[in-house]
Write a structure and sequence with these properties.
The protein is α/β, with parallel strands linked by helices and about 375 residues long. It has two domains: about 5-190 and about 365-385, Rossmann fold; about 205-360, Rossmann fold, CATH 3.40.50. It has 15 helices and 15 strands. It has helices at about 20-30, 70-90, 105-115, 140-155, 170, 220-230, 245-255, 270-275, 295-300, 315-320, 330, 335-340, 345-360, 365-375, 380-385, and strands at about 5-15, 35-40, 45, 50, 60, 95-100, 120-125, 160-165, 180-185, 205-210, 235-240, 260-265, 280-285, 305-310, 325. Helix 3 links the parallel strand 6 and strand 7 (about 120-125). Helix 2 packs parallel to helix 3 (about 105-115) and helix 3 (about 105-115) packs parallel to helix 4. It is globular. It starts with 6 loop residues before the first strand and ends with a helix. The model has no long low-confidence stretch (mean pLDDT about 90).
Length: about 375
């Protein structure tokens, strides 16, 4: 067998919040005899501060800081980052480019580079639709810039050889294109799982995990828990933080809902320790939020925790398909509460088994590897097997 020259692959991701996704892609490309480098921002989006690289093959782009998630400063920062990325690509001259979107301005800059370098194999990976995902309601002030930002992505996205989305729901918002569009879910690398025997008893324990911000439906969460506690003892565990934390806790106190607040937990073992006490994970967001999957739902699924869910698209469909929780809006508040009241120990045990299967089939390491393999199935000889 002849020795094949290594292809130069470059992964671009503004935020290493998606580090797990980067690791899956990197591993796949290395297995295909590629040399892989990762290009990221030097600005931590979550902590709003500069960060240091964690790996030798990471290149950092100096990025203008911003301090509000919805601001012109963030758009300016994204535009500046995208221009610097294009200049770096011109220097590195990769053969394969995997670009995670947003920032949408990356599409504008990189599609221009692709036009000038047609042999480049380009993958656009839509991992979020910020700020379209946010509940703007009737605010023209926010809708107009959101529409313009969307157009920047949509005008150039067909320049990619393959388009990836992190959920099926996002496909419905992208423009029609002849290019292959396929979903690769957000997975988590395999780690030792801590087994927890959760007994179905008099008290139902819930967990809320993640950002406590303006897109979660605090009113609906509290109403649901309050309705249920009139008929059954409940307890809520809260992991996370955000600008709406005080509002959330105040409303729980007003309804005398028992809870424990842990703040942020980054250690996987400690997080699983809390999740392991619970019967259900809460995945409840405002009705006009456009999201098909949440990162918190994958954490729930990973610990075989069924969901109380209002997210449409992929999450709603997966819960229905696997009977892995309760879709609150579909079933209705009263019927959802009644279903929990009537649930027997064997019913709950089966629901947990279903949730475990859902995770293994869709979000486990093996599942994500299979999805990436299928993504390249038609083009592998063309991309990876040429000398």
């Amino acid at each position: 067998m002849k020795n094949l020259a290594k292809k130069r692959a470059l992964i671009i991701c503004h935020s290493d919040y998606y580090d797990n996704r980067i690791r899956f892609i990197e591993q796949f490309l290395i297995q295909k005899n590629c040399s892989v480098h990762i290009l990221v921002s030097d600005f931590d989006h979550i902590k709003k501060q500069k960060k240091i690289p964690r790996k030798e093959n990471y290149f950092q782009i100096e990025t203008k800081p911003y301090y509000k998630n919805i601001s012109f400063q963030r758009i300016i920062s994204h535009n500046n980052f995208s221009k610097k990325v294009k200049k770096t690509i011109e220097i590195l001259k990769p053969d394969i480019l995997w670009v995670m979107i947003p920032p949408n301005s990356l599409v504008e800059n990189i599609s221009q580079y692709k036009k000038e370098n047609p042999k480049l194999f380009l993958i656009y990976d839509v991992i979020d639709m910020w700020p379209e995902t946010l509940p703007f309601r009737n605010s023209a002030l926010l809708k107009i810039p959101s529409y313009l930002w969307k157009q920047i992505r949509d005008k150039g996205i067909s320049a990619a050889d393959i388009i990836v989305t992190e959920c099926n729901l996002y496909k419905t918002k992208l423009p029609q294109t002849q290019k292959k569009v396929q979903t690769v879910y957000m997975g988590k690398p395999e780690q030792k799982s801590f087994f927890h025997l959760v007994v179905w008893e008099e008290m139902i324990q819930f967990c809320y995990l993640g950002s406590i911000n303006n897109i979660i439906d605090i009113s609906k969460i509290v109403t649901f828990l309050n309705q249920l506690q009139k008929k059954k003892k409940i307890f809520l565990h809260i992991i996370g933080d955000g600008e709406s934390r005080d509002k959330f806790i105040d409303e729980l106190k007003m309804k005398k809902i028992n809870y424990k607040y842990y703040g942020k937990i980054f250690d996987e073992k400690n997080k699983e320790g809390v999740l392991g006490k619970c019967h259900f994970g809460l995945n409840i967001m405002k009705e006009d939020v456009f999201i098909g999957l949440t990162m918190k739902s994958i954490d729930y699924f990973k610990t075989s925790l069924p969901l109380i869910n209002t997210i449409k698209g992929d999450t709603e469909e997966l819960i229905n398909q696997y009977a892995a929780g309760i879709n609150l809006d579909l079933l209705g508040l009263d019927e959802s509460v009644n279903q929990l009241i009537k649930m027997k120990s064997n019913d709950y045990k089966k629901m947990r088994e279903n949730t475990k299967l859902l995770y293994e089939n869709n979000f486990s390491g093996k599942a994500i590897e299979k999805q990436i393999d299928e993504l390249f199935m038609d083009v592998t000889p063309k991309i990876f097997e040429k000398g």
